[in-house]
Amino acid sequence: MIDGLTKLGCWGMKIPQEYGGLGLSQINYNRAVALVASYCGSTAVWLSAHQSIGVPQPLKLFGTEAQKKKYFPMFAKGAVSAFALTEPGVGSDPAQMTVTAVPSADGKNWTINGIKLWCTNGLVADVLCVMARTPSKMMNGREKKQITAFIVEKGTPGIEYVSRCDFMGIRGIQNGVINFNNVVVPSENILWGEGLGLKLALITLNTGRLTLPAASAAMSKQALHIAKLWGKERVQWGAPVGKHEPGAVKIANMAASTFAQEAATYYTSALVDQGGSDIRMEAAMAKLFCSVASWKIVDDLMQLRGGRGYETASSLRRRGEKGYAVERMMRDSRINRIIEGTDEIQHLFIAREALDKHMSTAGEMLNPKAPVGVKLKALLNSILFYPFWYIRLWLPTGFWPRYGSYGSLGKHMRYIERTSRRLGRSLFHQMIKFGPKLDRRQMILGRLVEIGTELFAMSTSIAKVIVLEKQNPKDKGPRELADLFCRQARLRIHSYFAGIGCNTDKADSRVAAKVLENEFEWLEKGIIIDDGLGFQVKK
Ligand SMILES: Cc1cc2nc3c(=O)[nH]c(=O)nc-3n(C[C@H](O)[C@H](O)[C@H](O)COP(=O)(O)OP(=O)(O)OC[C@H]3O[C@@H](n4cnc5c(N)ncnc54)[C@H](O)[C@@H]3O)c2cc1C
Predict the structure, then answer these.
(1) How far apart (Å, rounded) are the C-alpha atoms in residues 249 and 226?
(2) Amino acid 503: pLDDT
């Protein structure tokens, strides 16, 4: 299979044609990976770890001409790469990494030491992109930690493959623990520049992250296909399971959600191809929305398939039935909510971006440690900015008879407009209420982010309808799907807003703290435990 992918030039899909690659746009690259992902999550991850986050992407963005000339043709011919960021003690917070790279006295080489965990493709990769801590710099009397990205070639002495990791799903990947033991790399293998590694990783992930929503949407399409066939074929209690109301709701949600996932993914991919746009928010929202939505779809599909959903494809085939791999789809898709930024980290990332303008305008006013002069400056900024901004958010323009050209979807456009304003106001109100502590009210922020994400998916869905209707004005199917998605999203948004004022967040935190302090240990009585000390019955 890997040879087949090489023959097709798949390892060079994103590499410019002048270096021997296929030079695909972001949209077409995503379409290619989506095609693969619709059938096999593992194969999609091979391609994506290499091209979405592995060496080709940062090389394209930040490589020198000499680096591009050396490595791009290799990849175009089938060399595979990997991205080594995570460490045993460092997952969501890569700034704390411990793998080090120390320069030689003449500055010509760097020596890398330390362990990288869960490096996908790492065990077979010809080239690795390795992030390492390089000597800190002093700036304004303070230590500034430096992280630098290095291109490391396979076979460099000191690289030790410690263990292959196996997972719940995507079992066809080559993922492992790699020990770097005095691995010497030349200075010309630094990507972008000394100290720019973390920024490089984050920028690489901004676009790299778009492959996951494309893969999620494709898997959702596969789920829809299976649900359609099974929903008609399986008859129980006198009717096909797809016609019993709970089955129908699942199938309808699959169709509407799949449409919305594609819309969010390809809208953002188009922004990348167009160039000049800051797509951080859109990419993070597309990733968050699609990975969660597709997980729900697979869960619903498993329910619709009943016992057959839980049975493996090979077992089904052995019994002479169609081998729909729903069980594998479920195992494969769960990881999408963890890799390339977990759900929780996407919430934080999006919330911080949304708060950025407020923090730069008024943040210091709320900071008890800020000197009086700085506070006064923030106060002046706020006086100049907020009155106009805040009044604008109350203007009832979302009710004006606008968006007539959207026809039946105009009402959703008006809802998006007025709800965006309400979201802006709510964020501002929460900022006033909690001040700098809002950062720690992650459940509140999470709800606000989910509202923004739903609004984003609604607007991209409607935009997709307009494009499709231009191509085929008679087909009203896209409009029906977008309308259903928008109506469902509005219900979810309603409950998120309600949850901002009325929730159990504080009680949850209190109970969780007590669980962590062992106060509810009695609840664990009567189970068999194995905490590495041998089996015991908890008493
Ligand atoms: C199959 C697989 C493939 C992978 N491939 C690669 C790869 O190719 N290269 C690579 O470098 N890495 C790779 N990873 C690592 C992956 O990116 C990390 O698993 C991911 O970043 C999360 O880190 P963690 O697992 O250490 O979780 P942790 O960071 O330990 O987080 C545990 C939980 O706590 C939550 N959490 C953490 N911090 C916060 C916070 N501040 N606020 C709220 N909640 C928080 C998280 O959301 C999560 O739910 C891979 C992992 C797997 C399982």
Answers:
(1) 15
(2) 96
For residue 359, which of 346, 373, 347, 370 has the smallest C-alpha distance? 370
Nearest CA to ligand 1 atom 30: 91
Q: Is the CB of 84 under 6 A from ligand 1?
A: yes
**Assigned token pair, 380:** 């002046």
Residue 462 corresponds to which amino acid? I
CA–CA gap between residue 125 and residue 353 (Å, rounded): 34
Would the pTM count as exceeding 0.90? yes
Evaluate whether 158 touches 150 at the Cβ level (below 8 Å): no
Residue 193, amino acid: G
- The Å distance, Cα 450 to ligand 1 centre, comes to 20
3-state SS assignment for residue 191: strand
Could you tell me the distance, in angstroms and rounded to a whole number, from the CA of residue 387 to the centre of ligand 1?
Answer: 41
Q: Is the CB of 6 under 6 A from ligand 1?
A: no
**Cα angle 355, 360, 362; round to 5:** 90
Nearest to 183 by CA among 99, 291, 259, 111: 111
CA of 169 to the centre of ligand 1 (A): 16
Report the candidate in 137, 173, 134, 161 with the shortest Cα–Cα distance to residue 150: 134
| 338 C-beta closer than 6 A to ligand 1 | yes
Residue type, 48: S
Interacting residues of 107 by C-beta distance below 8 A, sequence separation 6+: 187
What the block records as the tokens of 311 is 């049975």
Q: Give the C-alpha separation, 510 to 165, whole Å.
A: 36
Burial grade of 119 (CB within 10 A; 0-12, 13-18, 19 or more): buried
pLDDT of amino acid 396: 76
Q: Which residues have a Cβ under 8 Å from the Cβ of 479 and sit 6 or more positions away?
A: 407, 408, 409, 465, 469
Could you list the active site residues? 340
- Residue 336 Cβ inside 6 Å of ligand 1? The answer reads no
pLDDT at 399: 66
The Cα–Cα gap between 24 and 79 comes to: 18
**Dihedral (Cα; 18, 22, 28, 32), 10-degree rounding:** -160
CA pair distance 419, 452, nearest whole angstrom? 9
Pocket test for ligand 1, best of 42, 51, 118, 442 (most atoms within 8 A of CB): 118
Mutate to test the pocket of ligand 1, among 99, 117, 333, 339 (most ligand atoms within 8 A of CB): 339
How far does residue 141's CA lie from ligand 1's centre (Å)?
Answer: 33
Are 104 and 110 in contact by the 8 Å Cβ rule? The answer is yes
Give SS3 for 150: strand
- In the predicted model, residues of the chain with pLDDT beneath 70 are 398-399
